[in-house]
Amino acid sequence: METIERYNHLNTYYKNKFGERTLKICIDAGFTCPNRDGTLSNSGCIFCSEKGSGELIKYSSQHIENQVKNFLNSYRGMRANKFIVYFQNFTNTYDTIENLKKKYDSALIDNRIVGISVATRPDCISEDIAKLLSSYLDKYNVSVELGLQTSNDNIGKIINRCYLSSQFTKAVEILRKYNIEVIAHMMIGLPTETSDDIKNTVTFINKHNIQGLKIHSTYVVKNTVLADMYLNKKYEPITLEYYLDSLAYVITHIRKDLIIHRISGDAPKDLLVAPEWNLHKKWILNGFEKLLKEKDLWQGKYYFKY
Ligand code: SF4
Fold first, then answer.
1. Which residues line ligand 1 (CB under 6 A)?
2. For atom 5 of ligand 1, which residue has the closest CA?
3. How confident is the model over 4-63, as pLDDT tens digits?
4. Number of domains comprising the chain
5. 29 falls within a domain
6. Which of 91, 160, 162 to mutate for ligand 1's pocket (most ligand atoms within 8 Å of CB)?
7. Which of 28, 35, 221 to probe ligand 1 with, by most ligand atoms within 8 A of CB?
8. CATH number, residue 109
9. Which residue range is the domain that position 236 belongs to?
10. Whether pTM exceeds 0.85
11. 1 in a domain, yes or no?
12. pLDDT at 27
């Protein structure tokens, strides 16, 4: 029996779009970030790990082409026929146009690759970068994962993201002008965040011409400013219950057309400081399904009510 999806799952979207199961190949292309290299700050966003996310990438020290080849030849890679190359670590549009093109091209080495996805920050999007990305549209699905985390600039300051929400708006406008899909990143449980802050972020996201949303809870990893805050009792992580309730708010108030790319983050076990529940992806996924079912909730159920 087919189960009803209460929100737009990414796998289903891929299946409908590409006709079959499609996997992401996560790539560490050796970029840095203006918030880490001293241009804006040296310390980065307070939660940002030493690798700028993507700790689970297996072949990250290798050349991009080898990272792709190794994944395609791996046990997982052999179990699918279509792939999206995903430039994950740090800011994947933070380089010259020439270097960006070289790096993107070096991942597109197999005709089973159907898409390219690039994670970046809003202040690292320009017309030239959007033009470059759009040049791949004739052969590939092209998307940009854009950091936002919160629309509340006061929290943006606390987390030291070093861009304003208005810069997110500008970046979305540029990317959409070139028909590039945009996926926003949102975090729940940031320091000082209240339920009103979460509502503001949802309202803000709904007003933007974006196509997807990635949500995860704030978790503390070693060697970050957030870890210091946690150890000095200046930050208290949220509970699983609070996360699931907040997630239910987001999903029920978000637009129905958005594809939900994920509802949990991949906290690396050896780096995670807190909260411990973040290691149990199934608790999050199954707990959320249960909550939606019990309360009869679905994506966009209350979208028109505010
Ligand atoms: S923008 Fe991304 S890569 Fe840069 S410091 Fe923040 S989280 Fe890390």
1. 33, 35-36, 44-45, 48, 52, 90-91, 121, 147, 161
2. 44
3. 899 999 999 999 999 999 999 999 999 999 999 999 999 999 999 887 666 565 666 689
4. 1
5. yes
6. 91
7. 35
8. 3.20.20.70
9. 10-305
10. yes
11. no
12. 96
Residue 166: inside a domain: yes
Residue segments in the chain with a per-residue pLDDT below the cut of 70? 1-3, 52-61, 305-306
Position 4 in a domain: no
What is the DSSP annotation of the chain?
A: -PPPPSS-BHHHHHHHHHSS-EEEEEE------TTTSSSS-SS-STT--TTSS-TT-TTTTS-HHHHHHHHHTSTTGGG-SEEEEEE-SS-TT-S-HHHHHHHHHHH--STTEEEEEEEE-GGG--HHHHHHHHTTTTTSEEEEEEEEE-S-HHHHHHTT--S-HHHHHHHHHHHHHTT-EEEEEEEES-TT--HHHHHHHHHHHHTS---EEEEEE--EESSSHHHHHHHTTS--PPPHHHHHHHHHHHHHHS-TT-EEEESS----TTTEEE-GGGG-HHHHHHHHHHHHHHTT--TTTTGGG-
Q: Are 59 and 66 in contact (CB under 8 A)?
A: yes
Q: Residue 51's pLDDT is what?
A: 72
Q: Residue 55 has what pLDDT?
A: 59
